[in-house]
Design a protein that fits this description.
Distance between the termini: 23 Å
Number of domains: 1
Strand order of the largest sheet: 1-4-5-6-7-8-9-10
Shape: globular
CATH topology: TIM Barrel
Radius of gyration: 19 Å
Number of strands: 10
CATH architecture: Alpha-Beta Barrel
Amino acid sequence: MYHMPLYRPPSEADNLIIQATLGCSFNRCSFCAMYRSKQYTERSLEAVFADIHRAAAQWPDANRVFLADGDALALPSEHLLAILRELAHALPGLARVSCYATPGNIQRKSAEELVLLKQNKLNLLYFGLESGSEIILKKITKGATQRRMIEVLTKAHASGMKVSATVILSLGGRTYSEEHIDGTIALLNSAPVTYLSTLQLYLDASIAAEFHRKFGEPFEAQDDLAILREQERLISGLNPPQPLVFRSNHASNALALAGNLPRDKEKLLLQLREAIEGVRPLRPQFMRGL
């Protein structure tokens, strides 16, 4: 029943997925090849409702739903609300709906619209932060500034929604490593997020040339040791405005970490130091990927 390829966050692995849109409305980030084979489409309510009822017949006790594809939040609010209400009607035990969200998606929704969506169980937004550095955000064609991302994250938080943000380690290469991490620290210390996870940069062969062209200068890739030091710098500098759950358990990472910040900062830093010193093993290369 799905239009492939289909992607979802790792934490949605056991949840029901409904495609409210196809592709990504922005689809210009130079590091991302996920939806390059698709044209962005807002699926009709008739088609989405049909998928909901087929899924509910097979899995009537489903209580969590992820709305795919790249950014269901791009839908007009009335359209999205209709989907949320149909999900609640079809799945009596529904507790949470989530979706990807871009900075532009959140910006275009009013505060009142976000609150209404939250009241209809759209509780969690997955937000690709990637970097807080103005230089890196331009080089990767993110379409947002540090200030804009702080504004929209604060707006989403004020609505009562939870935000799960991701940062891509090594996105600045060797040249901009400190710039990338320091800008990201500044952003995260100014904007409330509920969950934070890191990924390591992985360029699909289909977009590698585009990434290097848009970067605008030679990109020097980093090895695992340098990336672990980036992670160490990031965690050392984080003093978030509210406690957050931290994870680096995505399959792209050389080292899986889990904890809460700021509570577990020293524990996480110790694990990183052990990995840097070769005491703690890293995930083998053949087990890594997106």
